[in-house]
Specification:
Layout: E1 23-28, H1 32-44, E2 48-52, H2 81-92, E3 98-101, H3 107-118, E4 124-127, E5 140-146, H4 153-160, E6 171-176, H5 182-193, H6 197-208, H7 233-249, H8 252-265, H9 267-274
Parallel strand pairs: 1-6, 2-4, 2-5, 3-4, 5-6
Helix pairs in contact: 5-6
Length: 276
């Protein structure tokens, strides 16, 4: 909506004072023990950790929107938060306090779990992407994302942002399988390469596409024959200024003709504009 001129933005391109860059790296899934040892070491020093999975429980399936990929991912290929919570708490970290958080929990239980994590009563929080926003625990220093190739670039960036919020050196470990699509490889490489949210947002836009301004698709390439939203940003800004000037200067007859044309051109999208 910002690209099309419907929203203005304020740019904050600096990290808060005192924060260190988050060390981000990929680890092969078969070397998960390496990630778990870092978690154990950080917790032993007084820190806390997140471990995130793509689905809540076995038997669920993940929507996969990558071009050329199967629309549904076989559940057997995915690790789930519930089953891994049981395994981690019993077999991997039996001596530590491990909690579970996902979207299907009752609101009261989710709130209780988050309060326990914030208070340090839970040392390792296992969950899904429900934790990607709105959680501020400066003492958390490790984010482990298992099967990271299954997540979107913006999701991974948001998850990484749950750590590095204090003065402690933080880590983001992306556990990945050998079978990755080219798009997934680009996403993961970008996470290792930069923590600049603007660069990540631009790459995410390039990989996923912006979807429809007047429509329901939240990703995909828009119906532009020549223009490119990223390459032609200056032209978009010029067009925004010129259209604003035209609307301010046009008479009623011209505006009526413009409205008629837009309604005919975007008949399907008009209902979305007036909704709510």
């Amino acid at each position: 909506m910002t690209l099309y001129g419907d929203l203005d933005v304020s740019v904050i391109d600096e990290m808060p004072a005192g924060r260190l860059p988050i060390l981000t790296r990929q680890i092969p899934q078969e070397q998960a023990a390496t990630a778990y040892e870092l978690v154990r070491s950080e917790v032993a020093s007084g820190a806390q950790a997140f471990i995130v999975y793509p689905i809540i429980e076995d038997g669920a399936a993940l929507e996969n929107g990558e071009p050329g990929a199967k629309k549904r991912t076989r559940a057997a290929e995915l690790k789930s938060a519930i089953q891994m919570y049981e395994q981690l708490s019993r077999e991997v970290f039996p001596e530590l306090r491990v909690g579970l958080l996902h979207g299907r929990l009752p609101a009261e239980e989710k709130e209780k779990t988050m309060q326990a994590f914030q208070a340090g009563e839970i040392q390792i929080l296992v969950g899904t992407t429900v934790i990607e926003v709105g959680i501020d625990v400066p003492n958390a220093s490790v984010m482990v994302v298992e099967q990271a190739e299954r997540f979107g670039l913006a999701q991974l960036h948001q998850l990484r942002g749950r750590v590095g919020r204090g003065r402690r050196q933080s880590h983001c470990l992306l556990l990945t399988s050998r079978n990755q699509t080219e798009v997934a490889q680009q996403r993961l490489a970008a996470l290792e390469r930069t923590q600049d949210g603007f660069q990540i947002a631009e790459l995410d836009l390039r990989l996923r596409g912006p979807g429809e301004f007047l429509g329901t698709r939240q990703s995909g390439i828009p119906a532009l024959r020549i223009a490119n939203l990223l390459r032609d940003r200056e032209i978009l800004e010029w067009a925004r200024r010129r259209s604003s000037e035209f609307v301010q200067q046009a008479d009623r007859q011209q505006l009526a003709a413009l409205v008629k044309y837009l309604r005919e051109k975007w008949a399907q999208g008009e209902g979305l504009i007036t909704t709510g």
